Amino acid sequence: MSAPFIHIPQSSPVSGRARDFLDDFNRVAADPELGASLEQLQESFRTMNLTTGPADTLNEKDLVTKLINDNQALWNQLLQNNFCQNYMKTKPKTDVPTLNGFKWYMRQDFLYIVHQCQYEADRGLKATNATDFGTSMDKVVKRANYGKEILKTCTDAPPTGLGIADSVVLATTATTALKDYIALLIAAANEQNWVMSLVATVPCIQSYYLIAVDLHNNSAHQDTPWFKLWVEENIKYESSTTKQKQFFIDNYDQWKDHYATANDIFKKAVQAEINLWGTALNPGS
């Protein structure tokens, strides 16, 4: 069996949502009936030369960079969101509001996985053939494992976890921001073709790495739980961002006539990421 196109982080603290998104890319990359083949993607990645700089120097097939450039102001709001810039970057580990906000953010990530397990299980029950049923069950299994790992991160004692009681994590309620994000992803999956639905995952994968780099280089304190569990983990996965870009370059023919749709999905997904970070400013109990 060939190695997946994008490496899926195995570390428990890594966002279950981010890993779920990367699984979607690997599933499509491995499907010979959907766009560029896995072999083509792997070869392109080995020889790629992504250009960064003024828009007129960019590869016209680089959808990810084009979307970011065309929505730079909104994109900057995500990278410079209030919680990351004013709390995670500046506060010491003794700062209770920041710790509680980070805990709440991780609890929402756990709840995302739980909701998506339920959604995919329901899809499996409605399947009309073995292939679709199998796909849904495979997703349920992977998401369930991610859920167990995020729960472990939330409940393990520091420094490997956040020390939250399991009963508290399991009683977490979904914020409006999380519900809206899930609704966006489900709508993209149900209403768009496979390449457009993947556009909704771009802001998460790209921004996590960039935010982590910023916090790693500029945080006032590097001994905080959020630095150890979020920053140090997400800074490891630059290849995920470049491979995601390469995926859309190699599937240019699949999206080139649908840029307006891609742009609309991207903007909504960026706002969804901003809103989700915003929940950490007013954490629940």
Automatic annotation (TrEMBL):
<protein>
    <recommendedName>
        <fullName>Thiaminase-2/PQQC domain-containing protein</fullName>
    </recommendedName>
</protein>
<feature type="domain" description="Thiaminase-2/PQQC">
    <location>
        <begin position="99"/>
        <end position="281"/>
    </location>
</feature>
<dbReference type="GO" id="GO:0006772">
    <property type="term" value="P:thiamine metabolic process"/>
</dbReference>
<dbReference type="InterPro" id="IPR004305">
    <property type="entry name" value="Thiaminase-2/PQQC"/>
</dbReference>
<dbReference type="Pfam" id="PF03070">
    <property type="entry name" value="TENA_THI-4"/>
</dbReference>
<dbReference type="InterPro" id="IPR016084">
    <property type="entry name" value="Haem_Oase-like_multi-hlx"/>
</dbReference>
